Amino acid sequence: MTKLGTPGPDQGVSGVPAVPPPPAPPTAGRRPEAVARIGLYGLLAANAAAVAVFFVRAGFGVNALLLLGRLTGLYAALLMAFQLLLVARLPWLDRRIGMDRLTLWHRWTGFGLLWTLLGHAVFITFGYAEMSSMDPVDQLVDLAGTVEGVLRAVVALALILVVGAVSARRARRRLAYETWHFVHLYTYVAVVLAFTHQVAAGSTFTASPAATAYWYGLWGAALAAVFAGRLVLPLWRNRRHRLRVTAVVPENDQVVSVHITGRDLDRLPARAGQFFLWRFLTKDRWWQANPFSLSAAPDGRTLRLTVKAAGDGSAALRHLEPGTRVFAEGPYGAFTALRRTRPDVLLIAGGVGVTPIRALLEELHGHAVVLYRVNTEADAVLHDELRELAHAKGAELHLVTGPSVPDRLAPGELSRLVPDLTDRDVYVCGPPGMTAAVLRGLRELGVPRRQIHHERFSLAG
């Protein structure tokens, strides 16, 4: 283990322009993440209450099973709209909560949606079967053939079941992201079918002009959020900035840095610690999007990502030609200085997880300690830059090397290296196993949860 870095004046680092430090973090008031969470919870609770009010006003002139069917159907419609909001990639939410957490919430909301839709189908079918004395299967066939919109609802439920099956953890691990994503797109077909079913057959939807206006407004807002965040904003930003590769620099046999420039990059709202979904517009890779974080703080002129070859897509980046057009979605992520709560920071990186940590060190103010965990010194990507940056900013840099056992970032080692870590914000980025172990150690050492920041850079759960 090596300790590097000595106090020095704040200055630019070799090859990387100096970035003016952002304002000091607030020491009082609600954190941005908490504000966003409260806002989302409040929005969901307010709409749940509105749905209940419209349900009650529609009356109870049916049997109990049909009442339950109507209620579960209404809340399924609400959850479906809320799911769209969670994956709309709206900048205000993403910068405060992070795509990883929004995606996780979307996943669990999806399972809630699946069960409410199944409940709706079962209660409605058995409720009508009780009234008609028909077999439930025959009753469902009869409803699909005679009631407008029911067949569309059956197809929507089937699509949701398929998407739910491929989203299960075991199935998700076996599928390539592109395959999973293609299947997941059918959710939008299910949304349209479900909404048209609600318009055609929903008694609560037509119970009053206010109810009709509410449901049109809810669905319109959800679909508009997706349209704006997933389509309009990325297209507008890429037309505005016209990104291109300027250089490809090998860092070692497995890691490469890609330098990108474009127009008006000073107007791109990117922060150190964030990532983009990058599409390099070559003949064989234009269709593939990969989440790579920035490995240098944005300076208004260039962007840089540093990638380890972990598959065909990332390995192919070594062969990119300067001038290659780039389509980038983002910036995404809440792994930024916006989450600061304390004057000083501890940055913990593992392997290629050093990329957002290196960018954060460049931007953050206050005293910083950096722990960089690798197997051998040869694996320490961007180590020279970190050393120069630590010297320029008066930070401490500890290069922690050696095999995974014993754990060199165990609680005892952490408290020895950084005795005042409970008084610091802690940013952690590395392999999942290392990150989970470090987070457990930090909690064991009594670091308040609000001071611990981590983010998983991936597209899906």
TrEMBL record:
It holds the Pfam family NAD_binding_1. It comes from Streptomyces pimonensis. Its main location: membrane. Residues 1-30 are annotated as: Disordered. This is Ferredoxin reductase family protein. Its cofactor is FAD. Residues 238-338 form the FAD-binding FR-type domain. Keywords: 2Fe-2S, FAD, Flavoprotein, Iron, Iron-sulfur, Membrane, Metal-binding, Oxidoreductase, Transmembrane, Transmembrane helix.
